[in-house]
Design goal:
The chain is of the alpha/beta class and 428 residues long. The chain folds into 2 domains: 322 residues, TIM Barrel (Alpha-Beta Barrel), CATH 3.20.20.540; 64 residues, no CATH class. It is 53% helix and 9% strand. The strands form 2 sheets. An 8-stranded parallel beta barrel has the order 3-4-5-6-7-8-9-10, surrounded by 6 helices. The chain has a two-stranded antiparallel sheet with strand order 1-2. It is globular and about 85 Å long.
């Protein structure tokens, strides 16, 4: 059975117990969230490795990091190094978005080395293998899509992005809407290309029941992807985006009936003043389903610094109710990220998630900041560094600029406010 089906029977699984302990919530809270579809625990029932993870209402906001090769760079060792960085930087999940090299070997290797829940976008592998074997996307078949999904499920993938909401109706709405960037989702573009050429419905929508059967068999969590997400601020919150979201809300209901866990993916490029509205729309149209957002990016012109634009949007999205943040690296829109780009992307997204957790009143988040305040007052540098979101960078920066007095730092030196007040109060 799936975690959702166990929850309906009132059975507390080991995965639920582990999530409850980690989050500091009751198992009753998790059972209720799973049954209502406001919480998911992505845990393929064929893969027992690592700490189970909960995403959704009443839980801490989680951060995903994307890995994966491209047609220009397909170095498995480099992707394993990026995975190591993700673990060190404390990402909560990773996704393999590879489109270059031996995709099956890459995926299986990453799964073998990752203790984190791992996601994929199966249409990537289905298209790449079809192009290699037959010469073009138009030769993709429905059976090929589902063969890849089942292969990935057997390999141990925990959640998959499936662009089921890219339908003939939503494409028609997109054309009538008129956009600057049209479709920026690779998965959405693959399916749209195939649909327009064949004048047929999206196989993932037309055969959604088949997808649900596979998902239920392996307890694959479906991440219903936003193939029509806006690729620039001018396209944000338009009719095409909302039309797709309406479809995703309906598909989410069908999945819950089938015992399949579901979360919803969201934009993308969204100006600050529209972020809250986007979250409220998803929560209303999808009845509180966990919301997984890419950023969102709050400006289109931050290339090289998109991790900062992402952190701004992610913090505001988390405050408004988003549950799961997909990181963006400094190299977004420019190139495949390096391990250092990955590190910076993870840390930036974790800052956003933690800031939103604080604003939402999460007691664990507040306790960590309280401990940092106490360590700063005590001038306990070892403890301060340990409490940082990136201890390695904090330790490196302090080591690069050693103070004349070990209790202080070189910013204030002998005029450290905390030290002066402490010493003055001791004399009184």
């Amino acid at each position: 059975m799936t975690q959702l089906e166990y929850a309906r029977k009132g059975v507390v699984t080991p995965e639920m117990e582990a999530v409850a302990r980690w989050e500091g919530v009751s198992t009753d809270h998790l059972l209720k969230g799973l049954v209502e579809g406001t919480v998911v625990i992505p845990a393929n029932n064929r893969r027992k490795k690592g700490r189970p993870l909960g995403i959704g209402k009443g839980l801490t906001i989680k951060v995903n990091a994307n890995l994966g090769t491209s047609s220009d760079q397909a170095d498995l060792d480099l992707e394993l190094e990026k995975l190591r960085v993700c673990l060190e930087a404390q990402a909560d999940t990773v996704m393999d978005l590879s489109t270059g090299g031996d995709l099956r070997t890459i995926l299986e290797t990453l799964i073998a080395h990752s203790p984190l829940p791992l996601g994929t976008v199966p249409i990537y592998q289905a298209v790449v293998e079809t192009v290699r074997e037959k010469g073009g996307i138009i030769h993709l078949t429905t059976d090929k899509i589902f063969e890849v999904i089942e292969h990935q499920a057997r390999a141990g993938v925990d959640f998959i992005t499936v662009h089921c909401g890219v339908t003939l109706a939503s494409l028609e709405r997109l054309q009538r809407q008129g956009r600057i960037t049209d479709i920026v989702s690779r998965g959405g573009a693959f399916l749209a290309t195939w649909m327009v050429y064949h004048e047929k419905e999206n196989p993932l929508y037309a055969e959604y029941g088949r997808l649900l059967e596979l998902a239920r068999e392996y307890d694959l969590t479906l991440s219903l992807g936003d193939g029509l997400r806006p690729g620039c601020l001018a396209d944000a919150t338009d009719r095409a985006q909302v039309q797709e979201l309406i479809f995703l809300g309906e598909l989410r209901q069908e999945a819950l009936k089938a015992g399949v866990q579901v979360m919803i993916e969201g934009p993308g490029h969204v100006p600050i003043h529209q972020i809250e509205a986007n979250i409220l729309l998803e929560k209303q149209l999808c009845q509180g389903a966990p919301f997984y957002v890419l950023g969102p990016l709050v400006t289109d012109i931050a290339a090289g610094y998109d991790h900062i634009a992402c952190a701004i949007g992610g913090a505001l999205a988390g405050l408004a109710g988003a549950d799961f943040l997909c990181y963006v690296t400094p190299s977004e829109h420019l190139k495949l990220p390096t391990p250092q780009d990955v590190r910076e992307g993870v840390i930036a997204a974790r800052i956003a998630a933690h800031a939103a957790d604080l604003a939402r009143g999460n007691p664990q988040a507040w306790e960590r900041d309280r401990q940092m305040a106490a360590a700063r007052k005590a001038l306990d540098w070892e403890r301060q560094i340990a409490l940082c979101l990136d201890p390695r960078k904090a330790a490196q920066m302090r080591a690069e600029s050693p103070p004349g007095e070990t209790e202080v730092c070189t910013m204030c030196g002998q005029f450290c406010a905390i030290k002066m007040v402490r010493d003055y109060l001791k004399k009184k």
